[in-house]
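Supplementary notes for students who missed Thursday's class. We covered one full example, reproduced here. Read the sequence, then the structure, then the short commentary at the end.
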Amino acid sequence: MSHLLKKRKLDKNVQENLYFDSYSDVTIHEEMIADHVRTNTYRTAILRSSDSIRGKVVLDVGAGTGVLSMFCVQAGAKKVYAVEACSIAEQAVKIVKQNQMDDRIEVIRGTVETIDLPVEGVDVIVSEWMGYALLHESMLNSVLYARDKWLKPGGLMLPSKAELYISPINDLVVEDRLNFWCTVKDQYGIDMSPMSEFAKKCIMNNDIAINLVTVEDVLSHPSRLAELDLHTVTPEQVASVRGTFSCECFGSAAVNALCVWFTVSFPGDDKPLVLSTSPFKPETHWKQAVLYLDSPRDVMQDTKVVGEIHMYPSEESARHICIHVECAIGEHKKQSKTFSIPDGYSEAQQ
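Structure (token representation):
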């Protein structure tokens, strides 16, 4: 978020202001709309659900520029309430009017926890609430609040399910960076190998790195960590997501990190439509979450990588996610490590 955010527990109002301020700039909205996988999957899912949306009332939680609300109008929605807490709502009003949808879309400035809707219930809730590693800075609690307060029995959630996956990886870029210091002597006659250990501490730290992971780096089939049913999951369950994993490696390599990603699913008549952030699928702006182990381990064909993960909010900021990992690779001793996304990450990416 902001560079003003320090490693201390902030007042909740300060946390919320920092979060919403980050969505007041054009850059983040440009990144999201330009993410074709994200935006087109939502458009396809909404239009495919037109039978459930046509003539109905829709609530768009965290509407941003209003693009999902307008997709719902294209699908035949009678009325859409586009709720947005930050100042981008002013632009949403202009965009809605420009597209001549202001008779069916009402932009409401505020959070779902504080605003009033002019209806007792809605038929559909749509939201793009996912953050890095699914839960970092996500709006899921707000979506669940809206669901419990306004969604009619049998109403539609878009998306309706989220899943988390993990695989061991061999990050070749990190290997090259660590080995770099051992190559300096050949080039310049100065032995800088002591820097390797320092580099290891700097790179393979406790940060959740948001990187693009290539298929070639992935060392096993994915293991599913957790599944969230958006119709039934509770805020208490979201505040403590636990899962186990078991993977078998493809061949000889060195495991130096674990890679976490997510999918969300939209209901369909034949089969669900899936928005995936897997390294095996086209790139999205969420990329993948990489957890670097303290000690890389050599593996061979069928070496097992097993462990447990616990995801929970940071004490410093409820919107920041922490991931605690217990992991055993082959016959090696179990490793334990807790990761978080460093303060200032979102701002640094813009």
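Commentary. The longest helix spans residues 36-48. Residues 1-10, 16-21, 346-350 have pLDDT under 50 and may be disordered. If anything here is unclear, bring it to office hours.
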